């Protein structure tokens, strides 16, 4: 889940970035309107947090040009407390929500989540945790104990199936059908090879092993904190 913050006050921008990253969002920053518009137009963001007052092209200008360019990315506009017109103009120009400065981070993060939920991809669906393992779907990234683990497409999809069924058997048949799109009669040695590589990355470097083999049947992701 990738967000863009367009905000010229560095301290606010840095604090928002830090807070949102702790919630497992990926966050980019722009400090002026033109750079922000350029990034928002090309960066494939799920949401933009846009300050109203910016050097160069201001927030309303960014919003208007973004919408004129056909971009429907949700935008939260940050406005000054006493400027009702800004909020009205902002909503008319295509903002999805606004916050007046100063605001509490908790309120911003709640609005971010609400908007992303409305646009059908919430953080809850996007990020899964099993013990110290984290899977983030939108960026296809995996972390264990905070370390990023690089997986191939197939390895990632196997891990997703296991993470979605913690403590339950995922059969070899499931894996063949859902990861390879094949019928079970097909040669299945490829499962063993791929799972072995997955384990080398996800389990071998760590003392606690998560993937358990059920001989002849499939695999179970061991979990102490089932969601
Ligand atoms: Ca500003």
Mean pLDDT: 87
Q: Which stretches are poorly predicted, pLDDT < 50 over at least 5 residues? A: none
Helix content: 40-55%
Beta-strand share of residues? 15-25%
**Cα Rg:** 22 Å
Question: Which ions and ligands are bound to the chains?
Answer: calcium ion
Number of strands: 12
Order of helical and strand elements = EHEHEHEHEHHEEEEHEHHEE
Distance between the termini: 21 Å
- Work out the helix count: 9
Give the neighbour order of strands across the main sheet: 2-1-3-4-5
Query: What structural category characterises the helix and strand content?
Result: alpha/beta
> Overall 3D geometry?
elongated
The description of the largest β-sheet is:
5 strands, parallel
Question: Which helices and strands occur, and which strands form pairs?
Answer:
Blueprint (H helix, E strand, L loop, with lengths): L1 E5 L3 H13 L3 E5 L2 H10 L4 E5 L7 H10 L6 E6 L3 H9 L4 E5 L3 H14 L4 H4 E4 L2 E4 L4 E4 L2 E3 L3 H11 L5 E3 H9 L8 H14 L8 E4 L3 E4 L6
Parallel strand pairs: 1-2, 1-3, 3-4, 4-5
Antiparallel strand pairs: 6-7, 7-8, 8-9, 10-12, 11-12
The structure holds calcium ion.
Structural write-up:
The chain has 227 residues and is an alpha/beta fold. Helices cover 41% and strands 23% of the residues. The chain has helices at 10-22, 33-42, 59-68, 84-92, 105-118, 123-126, 153-163, 172-180, 189-202, and strands spanning 2-6, 26-30, 47-51, 75-80, 97-101, 127-130, 133-136, 141-144, 147-149, 169-171, 211-214, 218-221. The strands form three sheets. The chain has a five-stranded parallel β-sheet with strand order 2-1-3-4-5, with helices on both faces. Strand 7 and strand 8 form a beta hairpin. The radius of gyration is 22 Å and the shape is elongated. It starts with a strand and ends in a 6-residue tail after the last strand.
């Amino acid at each position: 889940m990738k967000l863009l913050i367009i905000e010229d006050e560095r301290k606010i921008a840095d604090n928002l970035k830090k807070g949102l990253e702790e919630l497992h969002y990926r966050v980019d920053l722009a400090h002026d309107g033109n750079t922000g518009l350029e990034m928002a137009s090309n960066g494939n963001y799920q949401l933009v947090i846009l300050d109203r007052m910016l050097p160069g092209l201001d927030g309303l200008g960014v919003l208007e040009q973004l919408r004129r360019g056909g971009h429907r990315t949700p935008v939260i506009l940050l406005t000054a407390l006493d400027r009702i017109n800004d909020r009205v103009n902002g909503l008319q120009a295509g903002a999805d929500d606004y916050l007046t400065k100063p605001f509490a981070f908790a309120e911003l993060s709640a609005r971010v989540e609400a908007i992303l939920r409305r646009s059908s991809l919430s953080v809850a669906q996007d990020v899964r945790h099993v013990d110290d393992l984290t899977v983030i779907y939108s960026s296809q990234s995996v972390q264990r104990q905070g370390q990023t683990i690089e997986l191939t497409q197939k390895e990632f999809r196997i891990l997703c199936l296991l993470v979605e069924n913690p403590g339950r058997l995922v059969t070899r048949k499931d894996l063949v059908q859902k990861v390879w799109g094949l019928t079970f009669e097909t040669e299945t040695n490829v499962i063993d090879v791929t799972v072995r590589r997955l384990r080398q990355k996800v389990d071998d470097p760590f003392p606690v092993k998560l993937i358990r083999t059920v001989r002849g049947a499939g695999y179970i992701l061991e979990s102490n904190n089932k969601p």
